[in-house]
Design goal:
With about 120 residues, the chain is α+β, with helices and mostly antiparallel strands. Helices cover about 25% and strands about 35% of the residues. Strands 1-2-3 form a 3-stranded antiparallel sheet, with helices on one face. β5 and β6 form a beta hairpin.
Length: about 120
């Protein structure tokens, strides 16, 4: 969380980038975050979708729902493509990517410590 807080404090000149708190509609309880971050893996001007949710709410569709809203915002902001990276062992997030219409690019970034990163892209 410190990295995220530092990122917010530094600020980003592009107002379409940023992470938003995800809340339950029924209670306003914060259960995670979702948003667009600067993409260091793809083309300039193509952001990366990022999300993370509390373990106790996994499997309830929150990542998919929040990501749809962020993708709509990305399209309204004029982006043509959005990227995402997912660890190869994270089958739940890989399913989310499929539901959202992302396509695996075939690019893999090896990481023996945390698991290989798979690259996904989605045209808007």
């Amino acid at each position: 969380m410190e990295d995220i807080e530092d990122w917010f404090r530094r600020g980003d000149p592009d107002a379409s980038l940023g992470l938003l708190a995800a809340q339950r509609k029924s209670s306003a309880e914060v259960i995670g975050y979702c948003g667009l971050i600067a993409n260091v893996h793809g083309q300039d001007g193509e952001p990366e979708l990022a999300y993370e949710f509390l373990r106790r709410v996994w499997g309830q569709g929150f990542a998919t729902e929040a990501s749809w809203a962020v993708l709509a915002w990305a399209k309204e902001s004029g982006y043509r493509r959005v990227w995402a990276t997912v660890r190869d062992w994270n089958t739940a997030s890989r399913r989310v990517m499929t539901k959202l219409g992302f396509v695996e690019t075939g690019r893999v970034e090896p990481d023996g410590a945390h698991g290989n990163s798979l690259f996904y892209a989605r045209d808007l």
